[in-house]
Amino acid sequence: MSVVTRITPIASALQEGCAEVPVLRERGQREVFCGLTGIIWLHRKIQDAFFLVVGSRTCAHLIQSAAGVMIFAEPRFATAIIDERDLAGLADCNAELDRVVTRLLERRPDIRLLFLVGSCPSEVIKLDLSRAAQRLSKSFAPAVRVLNYSGSGIETTFTQGEDACLAALVPEMPAAPGSAAPDLLVVGALADVVEDQMRRLFDAMGIGRVGFFPPRHAADLAAVGPNTRFLLAQPFLADTARALEARGAVRLDAPFPLGVEGTSGWLAAAAHAFGIDAQRFEAAIAPARERAQRALARHRPGLAGKRIFFFPDSQLEIPLARFLAREMGMQLVEVGTPYLHKQHLAAELALLPAQCQISEGQHVEKQLDRCRAAQPDLVVCGLGLANPLEAEGLTTKWAIELVFTPIQGFDQAADLAELFERPLVRRLRLVA
Asked: Does residue 120 sit in helix, strand or coil?
């Protein structure tokens, strides 16, 4: 079987699946975390970066509680709190920010990249953090680069904080020489163990020039240009993809690397783009793929036939639904997502069952009514909805755990399935 024919079923299926199914679009009250939450996984990924949130005490409590950081830890994030003195106009906010940044960099000389992260208090919105970042970058160059992006809940949902961060970082990427050989860029924060696994697979396939964005160290930004081909590892990176395309890079259309099918299609898209021989591609992925298939078989009996309902939260809902329906035999009641980027999700939509109900945006009261009426076996939702729904007798899965946990790739496929099986097992034990 050639690489081209391995990809063809996904492309030809665009006339089937959910590609043309009407989407229920809702605009009402929504229940999501703000984009500040992305700092929790980004600060672990870029090891010499620091994220300074300019916000309120509420912002500080959110980040601290979401991260679960103990008081004696030395995390790579903090909050510059706008307090009563600033609100009363008794202090110059820009001067205060400069003072905080100077003190931070004196205390933490290991910082090489500093992000000023905006939030939603009105006094923060009035601050020109872009100009502040430019001013501070000049002051501390070349040792430290200072960038800014918005994590405000007014502008971003849960995972879009990563998108805003990476989009701000794209202009810092060096330009690739026009005569350079094609490079592959994997875009989206992946756990280090997953990145290492992916790199080994690309090496075995014969694609040696592979960069990962964001990198582990700020100085290791990959070059980008017209010869760059990039794969999105996450479905919520619309602004980042747009910024890379403006630099001349070309996105490879592929499903996302969740489960055996998604990971195979994702790798096949790269193999096809780089002209990898079909036999070499098969030899490279076969061992990991077969291990994953055996591991998934242990979890399928616990999930097959179960009905699942997704509230919109992370933008991972469409790829997750495809994995659960096609590989684990679950029935999709409704798949809600905060935003549906049809171009980036074309391969995923083509693989969903034709009768699948997809909703974009949210009117939380109406969606709660539909969920209660359907009485699904499992509900995937945010923390704010989980406990009330559990009190009503529904079994829930926290959507946030699906972002914090490594779930991409062959070796994580069984872990992904177990994340959905675990609450069902817990419910059986409680009932028993």
From this structure: coil
Each residue of 385-420: pLDDT tens digit? Answer: 999 999 999 999 999 899 989 999 999 999 999 999
- Cβ atoms within 10 Å, residue 78: 17
Q: Classify strands 183-187 and 228-232 as parallel, antiparallel or unpaired.
A: parallel
**397 CB neighbour count, 10 Å cutoff:** 20
Find tokens 């994340």 and name the residue: 419
Express each pLDDT in 90-125 by its tens digit.
457 788 899 999 999 999 999 999 999 998 877 777
Helix, strand, coil % in the chain, rounded to nearest 5: 50, 15, 35
User: Do residues 383 and 37 make contact, with C-beta atoms less than 8 angstroms apart?
Assistant: no
Say if residues 26 and 364 touch (Cβ distance below 8 Å).
Answer: no
Query: H/E element holding 53?
Result: strand 49-55
Confidence label for 19 from pLDDT (cuts 50, 70 and 90): low
Q: How far apart are CA 77 and CA 64, in angstroms?
A: 9
Strand order in the sheet with 145-150: 77-81, 49-55, 113-118, 145-150
Indicate whether 33 pLDDT > 80.
no
Q: Please enumerate in sequence order all residues whose Cβ is within 8 A of that of 57, keeping only pairs 6 or more positions apart, or say none.
A: 79, 81
CA distances from 138 to 93, 96, 97, 133, 370 (A): 19, 17, 15, 9, 54
Residue pair 261/296 in contact by the 8 Å Cβ criterion: no
- Spatial separation of the C-alpha atoms in residues 386 and 396, rounded to whole Å: 6
Q: Greatest CA separation found in the chain?
A: 71
What is the token pair recorded at 157?
């949902």
Alpha-carbon distance 247 to 391, whole Å? Answer: 50
Rounded to whole angstroms, the Cα distance separating 199 from 85 reads 50
pLDDT, position 93: 78
Residue from 300, 303, 297 nearest 376 by CA: 303
Element (H, E) at 416: helix 413-431
Q: Which of 306, 166, 339, 328 is nearest to 258 (CA)?
A: 328
